[in-house]
């Protein structure tokens, strides 16, 4: 009897040991990650709400931006328990958006105010009225023969859907530069959004090395339709732009925030997750890009909470000045090159907090085919697909991926005054962090 009990205990022990030593499969680990974000994690939404409410309008070089960096640092150090955290100082644009007013003046004397906003880095009208006739442009083709001396050029190419941002954003980023030499007085741009609305959307203009100084403003999509219609009936109408936007003379300094969990096997191989800490001045920057910053932090928290030990180092960088010059990421890349650091890839998070639909890779077709084969069996059941293009995007780090989220609503908010916490869906936000964490786990 005694020996029988002993045998049973021994058998139980062996079984228990076998169970506890059973390797968690990749699928099970991904399940754990998704369950954690679905059922346990409350910090992601709480942190996002706090950043949005307490530090809105995080323009590079602003006090709110600086305080947000302090807050993120506090969360990482005190709540998540990350030991490796540091800052990198970087010179950023010091642009003041001022106040911008645009009116449409019909030839019968009617004056209609059009909801308008200054475009980033443009130097305004020094508070003076600029009034001129308007010439409307809808495509880049039309620029070749465009005559616009002493006119205000109105770029009115409309986004067809959430995926045509790249096709139309040049109007905002390059429009002013492209017509300055033709003698245009100023530029008005239809907000780069595929949604009808009364709030104008800003964004950088005068990009790259261009130093043109003609004033540039965006008007809401509804106002753009209104102006376009009025131009058909009233060829003589004029537009007045008055803007106090300007670049402040003194330089501004911002801080990149870097934090990491060192790898257990290959600490010198770094998986980078990047998101930008700056936002525009006209909203809380909830989707763009507090959601990305909080997501990056929550990936590290998930690693800690779920006791996952990364093989490679998992590093996050919340960098400055994505919206204007990318100076924060360039400085980060410069320091990394100087140190000879080696990155497996950079996963950029900057597509809002909508439902995650996959990951986009910027690399060769060969690389994509390989990665697709390996990743698809795990991504597909979660509704995630891998896409790619091999165009060399101007990016300071080599292989990189971006999270792709559902775009049906995104451009309602992007760079507009509605980009606030109240327009975040907590469920899709957490699902996107689960997707990022699972992706990093798979790639590790
Ligand atoms: Zn962004």
If you had to describe this structure to a student in words, what would you say it looks like?
Helix content is about 35%, strand content about 25%. It has helices spanning about 1-20, 25-40, 45-55, 65-80, 165-170, 170-175, 175-180, 220-235, 285-305, 325-340, 365-380, 410-415, 425-444; strands spanning about 85-90, 95, 100-105, 110-115, 115-120, 130-135, 150-155, 185-190, 215-220, 240-245, 245, 250-260, 265-275, 310-320, 340-350, 355-360, 385-390, 400-405. The strands form 3 sheets. An 8-stranded mixed beta sheet has the order 1-12-14-13-15-18-16-17, with helices on both faces. The longest helix has 20 residues, at about 1-20. It is elongated. The protein binds zinc ion. The site of zinc ion has 5 residues, from helix 9.
| Whole-number total of structural domains | 2
- The CATH architecture of the largest domain can be named as 3-Layer(aba) Sandwich
Task: Sum up the overall morphology in one term.
Answer: elongated
Structural class: alpha/beta
Helix content: 25-40%
Name given to the CATH homologous superfamily of the largest domain: Zn peptidases
Number of helical regions: 13
């Amino acid at each position: 009897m005694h020996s029988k009990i002993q045998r049973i205990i021994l058998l139980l022990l062996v079984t228990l040991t076998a169970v506890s030593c059973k390797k968690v499969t990749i699928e099970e680990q991904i399940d754990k990650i998704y369950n954690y974000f679905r059922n346990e994690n409350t910090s992601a939404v709480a942190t996002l709400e706090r950043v949005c409410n307490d530090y809105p309008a995080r323009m590079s070089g602003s006090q709110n931006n600086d305080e947000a960096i302090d807050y993120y640092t506090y969360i990482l150090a005190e709540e998540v328990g990350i030991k490796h955290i540091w800052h990198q100082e970087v010179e950023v644009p010091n642009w003041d958006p001022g106040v911008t007013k645009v009116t449409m003046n019909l030839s019968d004397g009617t004056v209609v105010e059009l909801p308008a906003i200054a475009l980033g880095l443009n130097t305004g009208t020094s508070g003076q009225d600029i009034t001129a006739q308007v010439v409307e442009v809808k495509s880049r083709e039309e620029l070749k023969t465009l005559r616009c001396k002493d006119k205000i050029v109105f770029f009115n190419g409309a986004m067809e859907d959430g995926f045509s941002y790249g096709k139309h954003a040049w109007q905002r980023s390059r429009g002013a530069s492209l017509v300055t030499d033709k003698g245009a007085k100023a530029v008005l741009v239809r907000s780069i959004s595929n949604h009808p609305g009364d709030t104008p959307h800003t964004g950088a203009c005068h990009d790259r090395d261009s130093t043109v100084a003609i004033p540039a403003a965006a008007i809401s999509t509804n106002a753009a339709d209104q102006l376009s219609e009025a131009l058909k009936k009233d060829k003589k109408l004029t537009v007045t732009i008055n803007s106090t936007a300007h670049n402040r003379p003194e330089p501004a300094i911002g801080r990149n925030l870097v934090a990491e969990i060192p790898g257990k096997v290959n600490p010198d191989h770094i998986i980078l997750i990047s998101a930008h800490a700056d936002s525009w001045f006209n909203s809380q920057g909830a989707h763009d890009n507090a959601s990305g910053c909080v997501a990056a932090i929550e990936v590290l928290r998930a690693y800690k909470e779920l006791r996952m030990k990364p093989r490679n180092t998992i590093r996050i960088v919340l960098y400055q000045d994505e919206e204007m010059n990318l100076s924060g990421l360039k400085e980060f890349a410069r320091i990394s090159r100087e140190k000879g650091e080696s990155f497996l890839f950079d996963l950029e998070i900057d597509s809002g907090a909508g439902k995650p639909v996959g990951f986009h890779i910027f690399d060769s077709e060969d690389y994509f085919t390989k990665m697709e084969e390996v990743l698809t069996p795990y991504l597909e059941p979660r509704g995630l697909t891998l896409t790619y293009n091999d165009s060399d995007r101007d990016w300071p780090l080599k292989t990189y991926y971006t999270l792709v989220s559902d775009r049906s609503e995104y451009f309602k908010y992007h760079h507009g005054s509605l980009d606030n916490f109240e327009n975040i869906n907590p469920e899709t936000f957490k699902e996107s962090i689960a997707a990022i964490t699972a992706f990093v786990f798979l790639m590790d």
